[in-house]
Design goal:
homodimer; Rossmann fold; five-stranded mixed β-sheet; 19% strand
Chain lengths: 448, 448
């Protein structure tokens, strides 16, 4: 066969040992926190029926689905026109997110689930997006949701998870909160309930472009000066979160929905304090994430010390499973962005040093009998929880030492003919260069 | 939108919380052992270029690849005939195993790798096989390989990993060993070096169909009585492994390759003993796994107490990366079959009981102030490593207790108005029904 120069599809990635260990560290930390808070894992297949996926992500999303060609003679009895329709030659697609598969799972297995259902799911998703810096065609999502309960304690539970995950990872963050009902209330108060997105986007731009430019933009979108005048006090809100919510309550007195949203936020902030959650939180009316499907709280987490988009976000939704025939299931969830969290931790040097050298000790190979002795010593070390390896070939010492250096292994243990005869080992600290001769039985204590 | 009855593609699976936790337990145990032995993880994309995958698994394998339809207007400028050729409308496919992606990875990243390269990889693979009991279209492989070294210490390293993984999982196993060079030597000695597969398959059937039937079968495959007479002493080998290998050495004295294989096996068994590996091992000349690509040792692991095919297997290969232009890279590897290991552990009831109830304590919700207190108590428990949750709604006590029962949560903690006032908690043991009132600060000690 002809020799090929190997490559991988654009937008996908190989992960080196170091990258994989760092990613596993993030996933393990997130997973441990989820479990400590009583969340249960599920996994769903990479492939879903296209009928499950299509129509759930808008027209743009449908185009971004990776479709899988039917097996066997997919073209049998199809006209050219039929063949050029993907739905005729593909029945399956790769999952685009974890939300739709979760909804499908809940409906399909509803009789086996104890509600409220606290589930997490950490799996890759695939999108045929144009690849660019920080945007990949295969990436992991880490989703955690509670469904089947409208209690705001669930929001607090998620806030607590945000606190703990980022505490455990060592990242300083701020949690920004908003509520779709408040945004609707603002739009309603302005007489433009249908322009909730335009108005929120304009609020979002306030800091960047200033008050006058925001007004001009709203004008351009058909919102008149009178309505804008009503918005002005909201753009100028200040004080503590509690004060802002009080002012909002008087401004939105005319909107039942707005008042409900304010009350929800008041309760959430009150609970956060009462539950002694020490996370920096703030009300941010410019948060416009997921306005198509969120119905209550909206969350977004930003790293305080590293400039990057949000590293975690979510909100409450009221009809996750309706599309699959199970109405009125309310839920709230958040998703951790593993790739961005990785970038923050790399940028701030937050990964534990151990991750770069999982192997603590390399036992050199100086001949057959010596190597057999090293195998036994290695097994004893592993029983004490010390990761180690024996160099497989009786290669030149220099080559073996180079391997230890390249792998950043902190200790090299040498059993030559003398050490073999005396039951000793020469231990070299690769950082300090220090070398000492000790009984083999004391090796573990010296490298712990 | 019309309501759909949800389902998943045939041959794929949803994993429930219990199944996912049990699978994670298996993966975590395997992964921990790999790391303790100095193996490094890599991950590769689910999608590979079809040019990487095609032609590596035989014609049958090519048919079993899941192919991904090109994005955008895949049919543009194609004739109907062209469209009915998958290679014209698909550039990518889902990986079929972890071996070819590993070979591709090594060639592509060879300058970043410290050889010998000890890598593991735990990821799903996809095959468009006809689904049947125990055979899925999506399943995980757990591969561990050492490449770039011909030392037999690597074989021992893998034997040590087999010992430890199954020790840690609590499964009694036997490791069967064979060597392709011995099989070649047998075929060569019989004058039929080209019929190595037929001869090995016949040896494999010996126990089932008996000596006479084996002879008849070999006759039918064009092997004459004279050659079969030479095979007979091998079929009748007995004694210890060392004795068998000695007898084989005299029988295969004419085959240089055969003698090399015997010497390799002698060394491997000698090392296993010298390294104090306490794993049941046996020489099994009927092992015919991977005769197309293995060149030395062949491994297969069977559970001793549960009837199922092999749960782990592998061998040495000499030209993993040749197809991608990097010749002469020898390696040895094994793969753990997570699905079968799962079945063995389920069948023998080997999963730790904790896996069925990750949440140790459910704190009931008896009203707003009580629930806030419960949130604080829950946080204190979690800080002590105790997984717990607060029921989100102030629902009827009966409903909350039912949830605890369904989730098999062993303890329920009740903070009502009295407990709130007194700083106490009523703790109910859900197994014994026992109930006691204790200070909130003593809760952790009582549920540990």
């Amino acid at each position: 066969m002809a020799v090929q120069k190997p490559s991988i599809p654009k937008g996908t990635r190989d992960f080196s040992p170091m990258e994989t260990m760092r990613r596993d560290y993030i996933f393990d930390t997130i997973r441990r926190t989820f479990r400590q808070n009583g969340f249960l894992p599920i996994e769903t297949p990479a492939m879903e029926n296209l009928s499950t996926l299509l129509g759930k992500y808008g027209d743009e999303g449908d185009k971004l689905l990776f479709k899988i060609l039917n097996s066997g003679d997919y073209a049998a009895n199809l006209s050219p026109e039929q063949m050029s329709q993907a739905s005729n030659i593909c029945e399956k697609g790769l999952r685009y997110d974890l939300t739709v598969p979760f909804a499908r799972y809940v409906v399909q297995h509803q009789n086996d689930i104890a509600f409220p259902f606290k589930r997490y799911q950490i799996q890759p998703v695939w999108r045929a997006d144009r690849p660019q810096k920080g945007r990949y065609r295969e990436f992991y999502q880490c989703d955690v949701d509670i469904i089947g309960s409208r209690s705001l304690l669930n929001e607090i539970e998620l806030v607590g998870i945000v606190e703990k995950v980022f505490d455990n990872l060592g990242i300083n963050v701020t949690l920004k909160l908003n509520n779709r009902k408040i945004l609707f209330g603002i739009a309603e108060m302005m007489g433009h309930a249908d322009k909730i997105v335009d108005i929120t986007v304009a609020i979002d731009k306030l800091e960047k472009i200033g008050l006058e430019a925001v007004k001009a933009e709203l004008n351009a979108r058909g919102i008149d000066d009178e309505a804008i005048a009503k918005l002005q006090p909201i753009l100028e809100l200040n004080g503590t979160t509690a004060e802002k919510l009080d002012t909002l309550a008087s401004l939105l007195a005319c909107s039942e929905t707005g008042l409900k949203g304010i009350e929800e936020m008041q309760t959430v902030f009150e609970y956060i304090e009462a539950a002694e959650i020490h996370l920096s939180t703030e009300l941010d009316l410019s948060l416009a994430r997921g306005l198509n499907y969120y119905t209550g709280a909206i969350f977004e987490v930003k790293a305080n010390d590293f400039a990057i988009g949000s590293i975690c976000g979510g909100g409450r939704y009221d009809n996750l499973t309706g599309i699959f025939g199970m109405p009125d299931v309310s839920g709230v969830g958040i998703s951790f962005g593993a790739d961005r969290i990785y970038d923050v931790m790399s940028g701030l040097n937050l990964f534990p040093a151990e991750l770069s050298s999982p192997t603590k000790v390399l036992l050199l190979n100086l001949g057959k009998d010596e190597a057999i002795c090293s195998l036994r010593v290695a097994n004893a070390l592993r029983k004490q929880g010390i990761a180690c390896e024996v160099y497989p070939d009786a290669a030149k010492m220099k080559k073996q030492m180079e391997y230890a250096n390249r792998r950043e292994i902190p200790y090299v243990a040498i059993i030559g003919s003398n050490e073999l005869a005396e039951g000793r080992v020469t231990l070299k600290n690769m950082t300090s260069g220090e070398q000492l001769s000790i009984p083999q039985s004391e090796l573990a204590d010296n490298v712990k």
